[in-house]
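Box 3.1 A note on notation
Throughout this textbook, protein chains are presented in two layers. The first layer is the amino acid sequence; the second is a token string describing backbone geometry. Keep the layers aligned when reading.
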Amino acid sequence: MFKVAFASAALIALLAARSPPDAELDGDLEVNGMDPAFWGVKVARAQKVTTIAVLGERDIAGELPVKSKGADKDVLLTSKTPEGDFVMTLRQEDCRDGLGEREYHWSATVDWKGETLKGCAASVKAAPAPAARSFANWPPRTCKR
């Protein structure tokens, strides 16, 4: 039994080590930037929607992005919207969006309505489930007699 568990763990580790670096782009994403104006994109896979927000414009709901290869090692994420394709070019490199101290591992560039938007992208990690509460010692005893 121990050998089977060890072999399974080794296989999972091997597959994780061999996953492409852009695999993190297959989940929920957040893309933010300040150049030339505040803009942001949220990809919510469970809700099957991409929300695009650019300062001074109304928010746009688009389809989930389709991933493809770009020039060099760039990754393209294309979301179809009622106003046209929103194509994000992502490059794996450390990036700062100027909004905070968050770490991003991808830079992002978008050509949209005659402007080039620049920012940073990162996968959004699911919030950990809250710890289960134990009521084994309920009610608490506050005084001793």
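The two ends are 51 Å apart (CA to CA). Helices lie at 2-18.
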